[in-house]
Request: fold
Amino acid sequence: RGGGPRALASSLSAVTKTVFGKRGFADGAIVKDWVTIAGEHLARHSLPEKISTPRDKAAGGVLYLTIDSGGMATELQHLEPLLIERINGYFGFKAVDRLKITQGPLPKEDHKPAPPVRPLQEPEESDLAESLLEVDDPELKEALEALGRAVIGRRSG
Reply:
């Protein structure tokens, strides 16, 4: 507990490490980097669920994957050796010996468009500019101005 503000990512990392650890993922990196590992097409239709490894070693595990369709499951069976090679290359050691494929629904991605931001009215523009007068750092000032415009612009006019 350091007294100052911390990046959200560092706080989330501590929380997700526990959750992912229970599923055999040391830090959840395979889930975060699944698109890079599996490729965009396969990643869109699959999700790593857990890795189980033999008790006496860290290598030679089974990666459990959920696939969203039977056609993709068939395609993955043909690509299994290549995917295992890519997974092990990602880890830097032979972490996975085989895949266990289960067909089922994948979590839906929530792609809600951001609500529109209306242009600021003159009094709002001047209030925003005045509130940023004492900010010296140009990058910080620009970021705060963008944030201010977004917050004020989403309020009803």
Remarks:
- The chain has two domains: 11-103, 122-154.
- The first strand starts at residue 46 and ends at 52.
